[in-house]
């Protein structure tokens, strides 16, 4: 480190921070000559052992970094002071150098190699393998004059054993969350080697959390030394960069950062996308999408284009079918099911080519820097405005221009256009030019019919698209019940519409839901009618009760009047038991019956003796006396 650099550090440590300005060169920063040389010397070959790979694959990644971008100019001075950083900037703003330059300077000032220390000094955690590879290549360029070692840990079963033998000697590690956690848990001594960690960088933190790495990230933080809440030089510095400040990101920042500097250079900007980006949208039916895409590619053979789909199966099918159709330009595909080494090769191959088409899933929508991309085409609608912004951010990088095209279904257009307009995105609506439109359905049908593998891919693409639409949370935009399934299957070259079990289950659930809804409505109607009847009954009962009360009151008044005027009425209480004590009360009734009996003509009663004795006739008179003979 030169004497001039030391003096610059002393100046910035006293509180000097440059004021925002445009076209500020890197050489105005108090950084080491090794870093400045790496920034300004893009054509020098890498010092790595594999120089041929560096020249062939990475030459297009070499850049001559002279002027700082807004995020770099705002962030680097604070980071050089050792402060924790919470940075937010739109895509394509140059965040990578904003944390790599302070990282190199921090480790360079610590003199790790001269002190005889060969442990881990810095972690840079990235959400995807491709972004980690890109960061590693930039680090190789600007840090090749430093006496520091760096490693890339991005997954793969075969590479894990080789990584275990070397990871303990790495000063800087660029990695994905899952791979880093695997080494912390399975590599002996690796957690001890991390106890001197000085710099932790979380790039695209919101994307890391969105991809389901929240638990892994918190477990990684448990292995690392806690940040010392003191102001001395040796405490761990953490830099967290995120395009959005969600609730989870704020919780992560609270856990990992100490008194951070919040930097958002585009907070007051009206544009959430690059200023030189021209945005457009196109409304077409689902069965026209393949025709629109093929016609677009044929009309832009001299362009570098990235085409986004919602699922891996769609990317694989479209790649195979377009390779067979030979549109006249190189076509490639990039998705999550491709192995790491192959994905890296495809990435660098696309970067090198001046004209090519890359079919990709959203694995390529965050953080990756594809130089000189002319068009970004979204064949499937994005999940939300954030995904749209990150997709179109693959073009118009830094100060370059670019164009984007969004294809929407008629059922998606009203809600999605409203959503994007609320985000202050100015998107021009286009229409299909019938003179340049080409139909490829017959060619697709012939290819699918002649190749069983392509036929299988077509069926998988059909089902995966429907599943992706069904799983989208915004049901105002994505309506799987309104998709023309037969026409879509025919456009993919399929002779018949594949059966999707989940659609049948969904239809069954919808039918049950509708039936339940009808039953609920009927039940509510019955309850309403019942309530109205009860109300009327209560009203009627109230009137009758009132009349009864009036009648009883009147009878009571009459009874009182009778008692006062001579007692003409005799009140008697009747008891209906058979006790002897009550015989006097029951007397009149038997007497009446006796009188009635005496008035009737009396019958003579004949009593005959049993057959065992002598027969004798006995006669009784009217008074019941026995007569002789």
From TrEMBL:
Residues 19-42, 612-622 have a biased composition (Polar residues). SMART domains: DEXDc, DUF4217, HELICc. The keyword Nucleotide-binding applies. Pfam families: CTE_SPB4, DEAD, Helicase_C. It comes from the Eukaryota. Keywords: ATP-binding, Helicase, Hydrolase, Nucleotide-binding, RNA-binding. The keyword Cell cycle does not apply. Its EC number is 3.6.4.13. One of its GO terms (molecular function) is RNA binding. Residues 542-557 have a biased composition (Basic and acidic residues). It catalyses: ATP + H2O = ADP + phosphate + H(+). Residues 13-61, 542-629 are annotated as: Disordered. Residues 289-438 form the Helicase C-terminal domain. Residues 76-263 form the Helicase ATP-binding domain. The Q motif is unique to and characteristic of the DEAD box family of RNA helicases and controls ATP binding and hydrolysis. RNA helicase. Belongs to the DEAD box helicase family. This is ATP-dependent RNA helicase. It comes from Leptocylindrus danicus.
């Amino acid at each position: 480190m030169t004497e001039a650099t030391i003096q610059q550090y002393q100046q910035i440590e006293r509180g000097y921070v440059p004021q925002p300005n445009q076209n500020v060169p890197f050489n105005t920063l108090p950084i080491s000559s090794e870093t400045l040389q790496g920034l300004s010397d893009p054509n020098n070959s890498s010092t790595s052992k594999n120089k041929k790979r560096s020249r062939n694959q990475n030459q297009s990644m070499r850049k001559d970094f002279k002027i700082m971008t807004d995020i770099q100019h705002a962030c680097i001075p604070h980071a050089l002071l050792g402060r924790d950083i919470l940075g937010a900037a739109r895509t394509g703003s140059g965040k990578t150098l904003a944390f790599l330059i302070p990282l190199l300077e921090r480790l360079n000032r610590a003199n790790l190699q001269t002190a005889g220390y060969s442990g881990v000094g810095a972690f840079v955690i990235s959400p995807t393998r491709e972004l980690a590879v890109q960061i590693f290549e930039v680090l190789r360029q600007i840090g090749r004059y430093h006496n520091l070692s760096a490693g890339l840990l991005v997954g793969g079963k075969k590479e894990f054993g080789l990584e275990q033998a070397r990871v303990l000697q790495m000063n800087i590690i660029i990695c994905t969350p899952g791979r880093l956690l695997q080494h912390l848990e399975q590599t002996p001594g690796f957690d001890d080697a991390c106890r001197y960690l000085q710099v932790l960088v979380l790039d695209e933190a919101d994307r890391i959390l969105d991809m389901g790495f929240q638990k892994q990230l918190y477990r990684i933080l448990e292995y690392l030394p806690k940040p010392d809440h003191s102001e001395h030089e040796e405490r761990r510095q953490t830099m967290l960069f995120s395009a959005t400040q969600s609730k989870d990101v704020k919780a992560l920042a609270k856990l990992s950062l100490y008194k951070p500097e919040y930097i958002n250079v585009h907070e007051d900007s009206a544009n959430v996308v690059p200023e030189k980006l021209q945005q457009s949208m196109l409304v077409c039916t689902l069965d026209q999408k393949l025709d629109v895409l093929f016609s677009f590619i044929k009309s832009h053979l001299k362009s570098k284009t990235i085409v986004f789909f919602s699922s891996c199966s769609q990317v694989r099918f479209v790649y195979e079918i377009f390779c067979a159709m030979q549109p006249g330009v190189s076509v490639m595909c990039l998705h999550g099911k491709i192995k790491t080494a192959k994905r890296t090769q495809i990435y660098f191959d696309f970067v090198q080519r001046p004209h090519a088409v890359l079919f990709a899933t959203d694995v390529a929508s965050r953080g990756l820097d594809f130089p000189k991309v002319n068009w970004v085409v979204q064949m499937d609608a994005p999940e939300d405005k954030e995904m749209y912004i990150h997709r179109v951010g693959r073009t118009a990088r830094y100060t370059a221009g670019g164009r984007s095209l969004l294809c929407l279904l008629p059922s998606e257009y009203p809600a999605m256009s409203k959503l994007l307009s609320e985000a202050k995105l100015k998107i021009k609506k286009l229409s299909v030019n019938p003179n340049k439109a080409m139909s490829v359905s017959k060619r697709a049908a012939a290819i699918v019919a002649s190749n069983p593998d392509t036929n299988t891919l077509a069926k998988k693409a059909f089902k995966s698209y429907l599943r992706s639409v069904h799983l989208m949370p915004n049901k105002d935009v994505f309506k799987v019940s309104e998709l023309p399934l037969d026409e879509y299957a025919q456009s993919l070259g399929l002779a018949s519409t594949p059966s999707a079990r989940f659609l049948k289950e969904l239809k069954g659930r919808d039918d049950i839901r509708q039936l339940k809804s009808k039953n609920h409505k009927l039940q509510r109607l019955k309850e309403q009618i019942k309530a109205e009847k009860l109300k009327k009954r209560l009203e009627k009962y109230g009137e009758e009760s009132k009349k009864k009360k009036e009648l009883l009151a009147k009878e009571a008044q009459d009874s009182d009047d009778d008692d006062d005027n001579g007692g003409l009425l005799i009140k008697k209480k009747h008891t209906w038991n058979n006790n002897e004590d009550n015989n006097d009360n029951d007397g009149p009734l038997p007497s009446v019956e006796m009188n009635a009996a005496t008035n009737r003509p009396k019958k003579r009663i004949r009593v005959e003796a049993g057959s065992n004795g002598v027969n004798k006739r006995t006669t009784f008179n009217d008074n019941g006396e026995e007569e002789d003979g």
